Amino acid sequence: MEMERPLDSLNNSRNKKVIVELKNGKQLVGILKAFDIHINTVLEDTEERENGEVKRKLGTAFVRGDTIVLISTV
Fold it and tell me: How far is CA 18 from CA 2, 54, 72, in A?
């Protein structure tokens, strides 16, 4: 079995719903549309969540890679 590189794994999550945790403790949930080698990320249908509850709807969001702690599929 061949190990995937991190960007390969992220690429497999494209067009899927993901949770993005940020350094400031906020969570964004949305459809992963695009990313670059710096993990700058574009999410669609994005919601900002706090304590599991939707705080606000953001629509399409660009997230700077250096603010991201974790990206996980839902």
Answer: 24, 15, 5
Domain count, the chain: 1
Contacts by residues 40-47 (CB-CB < 8 Å, ≥ 24 positions apart): 40/64, 40/65, 41/65, 41/68, 41/71, 43/18
Q: Distance of alpha carbon 72 from its chain centroid, rounded? A: 7
User: How do residues 19-48 score in pLDDT, each as one tens digit?
Assistant: 999 999 999 999 999 999 999 999 999 999
* 1 belongs to a structural domain: no
Residue 13 structural domain? 6-73
CATH assignment of the domain containing 16? 2.30.30.100
- The pTM score is 0.90
